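Could you please consider the sequence and fold appended to this message?
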Amino acid sequence: MTLGLFTQHLVNALALGSLYALIAIGYTMVYGILRLINFAHGEIFMLGGYIAFYAVTIFFLPWWIAFIAAMVLTGVFGIIVERAAYRPLRNSPRISIMISAIGVSFLMQSLAVLIFGGIPKSFPVPLIFDRVISIGEVSFMSVSIFIPVLTAFLLIVLQIIVRKTKTGIAMRACSTDIPAARLMGVDVNKIVMFTFAAGSLLAAVGGVMWSSRFPRLEPVMGMMPGLKCFIAAVIGGIGNISGAVLGGVFLGFIEIMLVATMPALSGYRDAFAFVLLIIVLLVKPSGLLGKYQIEKV
């Protein structure tokens, strides 16, 4: 493999891994506070892409306004999902909440088929994301540069919120002990609502950028990326924001390099992600940056 070809694969791996990281952050934020795997997160990712699509094609909004609208509306939808499907079951056994999350996932897929139609749609990629950049032997789309930069920016903003603001302190308190946080005056419902909104907003960013890089919208588009991003969160250490980003980038790098070095195995790239999950759970169940915790019954 030449240096130019390796650089080409490295750019592609960084772009794909950054997309995984954006979506994985939502998984890890919700799990960090509620110990809940939001299996509907992939469908929220899908919804963000569709909202941006219709904002551009029906309402003829500029692409940047359409993207902001997609983030805001998807964040609001995340709050609605939390209020309707998860909050009533918060004190129930965790298996009940997990079944509810799976039900929300399938419900959203079915509603997407009914509302948006089952025929795939071509996403209107903005010109700023559709330019070809050539540096020597390396050529890539400009969106491949925007994605890692945007992911890094959002990660920095999120870390500032979590570490430097009162809301972030309350989030960390809830992730440690919700009853104790309540006794200290923390409004747990508001913190959970903020967490779902922030996670859904990041999923929307991921959905829009994913659609810009792979311009094909369909109701089931969130299923496999959603599962892979859950795997990325587990690899990095679910509950740890930096770990989710690390796990996403790591998974993207492994996938791209696997296909690049062994093209005959390209059809097994999805299966390889699940094999990697099993290996991590056997060798280091807490993930790369995760910590061992005693499970509360």
